[in-house]
Amino acid sequence: MSAADxxxxxxxxxxxxxxxxxxxxxxxxxxxxxxxVMAVLSVLVIAVxxxxxxxxxxxxxxxxxxxxxxxxxPTAFTLDNYIALFQQTDYAEALLNTLIITVGTVVLLVAIVxxxxxxxxxxxxxxGRFLYVLFIAGLMxxxxxxxxxxxxxxxxVGLYSTLTAVILVHLxxxxxxxxxxxxxxxxxxxxxxxxxxHVDGAGRLRTFWLIVFPMLMPVTSAxxxxxxxxxxxxFFVPLVFLDSSSxxxxxxxxxxxxxxxTSQWQLIYTGAILAIIPSVAIFAGFQRYFIKGMSxxxxxx
Amino acid sequence: xxxxxxMEGGVGVASATALLPGDSPLHxxxxxxxxxxPRRGRLGIAGRGRLVLxxxxxxxxxxxxxxxxxxxxxxxxxxxxxxxxxxxxYDYVGTKNYQDILTDDRFWNxxxxxxxxxxxxAVVINIIALVAALMLDRLNHLQGLFRTAVxxxxxxxxFIMATIWKYLLNYxxxxxxxxxxxxxxxDWARDWLGDSSIVVWVILFITCFTLGxxxxxxxxxxxxxxxxxxxxxxxxxxxxxxxVFWNVTWPMIAGAITVNMTLAMxxxxxxxxxxxxxxxxxxxxxxxxxxxxxxxxxFGEYRAGFGSAAAVVLFIVxxxxxxxxxxxxxxxxxxx
Lengths: 301, 336
Known about the structure:
The structure holds 2 protein chains of 2 kinds.
Chain A: H1 3-11, H2 32-58, H3 63-68, H4 80-88, H5 91-123, H6 125-137, H7 143-156, H8 163-186, H9 191-199, H10 204-215, H11 217-233, H12 236-241, H13 250-260, H14 265-300
Chain B: H1 4-17, H2 47-78, H3 96-102, H4 105-138, H5 143-151, H6 158-168, H7 175-182, H8 199-207, H9 212-223, H10 228-236, H11 241-252, H12 254-269, H13 273-278, H14 290-300, H15 304-335
């Protein structure tokens, strides 16, 4: 719980204030001030989104158009770049790799992290406290600190430059945040429900997956979305753990194109746009959970 | 937020039955454990039940230990060696790597860049995000639409944003220079990423394009939990907009400021994507950050022992700055 909540509780004893003084939003009138605020916000959004929109337009330009006028706007829309990207580069394979890493990591995280958080909370006492602190400490260990020994270790066991290595590295990195998020939620689940299940003869495992896990759905949605976006957008981990014999992930593939295809920026832009689309789709589909998850995660952090 | 009451209910149950651990160590709460309830036969405490629960933790714990804790400790060990990153063997060289780092101008340049980029982007992003959140909070119409619009750019990763800007900043045909020439300002056009006197500031500018969306959402969530009654009371008492903000809203969102500044600082210490894509640390070593320095030294220059020592230094800096900043800001919250 944030200190803001605590402060509010002190400043505002419930009994001293009328409860409903807030005017319902929909009855409010449009004011000039509000229109100004909207205009300012629009300018801000356009300023940040302009480069992306420009990249989108560039991805529809033909190669000849780019050669004549490298920075102009498209005169005719063509999908040639999208076709060329898949024919001339191994972007398709990189896309598949990225998908495997994202989905694989998220599925495994959901399989192990909520259960671990439940175990930590319910075992309690000194043991629970120690395990909690051990996991949370990971939040302060930068990836750079562990990457050199990890490369060495994966080399020793023959897993270097495999998707398995990338997934394992991500699992370790995401565990800390997951434990933090889940533990603060599990605290709020009344234990009587579990005891009832226990009396009815359900074991721990059944109680967890059938009773507790469904109650954790709001956290799980937020956790999955935050992780999926982060994994999809990640560049550093696959850069370090996938060597040039692999197609890499989409970001690694685009990075290689910057080195190899410097005269074909329209292909690089096309790859960049394709990399953004799934993020937007994930966000559009789960927006409600996402915003809730972001704010909950922050307030609990 | 919405689960707040249920959370408190949970803690209440915990102290009543003595089955839950005390509050998490991060928020020390007074422990009111009733004495000596019979433990045996209750869930999750005695004998076999305890083992089952520890079994629940085991898979995550094993992966976490193997992927985070053990390699971090190995990094400390490697930092005392002259390992090149590929050979089978290596020798222990004592504190030589650390001595070399502390006298290496290139390392201190990377530290300076990390400070400029990390703290600079944290401050700029937080100010812009707070202003954006305050404006969003004031909207009575179309708030959802604008909230989504403000967030959308944050879905573009730091890597992709840097890739797009690399093209826009190209000296010969990039849009930035073209626009400047078209505007009749050809003197302003320059090699943005190749000019060592400005390159770090250019990277800072591009870094500020990412992360703003998340920060805005966190501020907005906290602003909307500030009770309207309090704001109205202040207005009735004759406070102007600035006074209301400074004396009511600002103290109320102190928690969000702590969270956002801490998150931004942690992100700032490990800035890598932008440097890798835009300049590869160049020209020369001018635009290297600590994260990039460790990557380059460890893998590009076959000095893994030296890179490990730099990583250990980074780790110490992150811990001190995170814990220190958090302690300072939490203290400020209580005063506020």
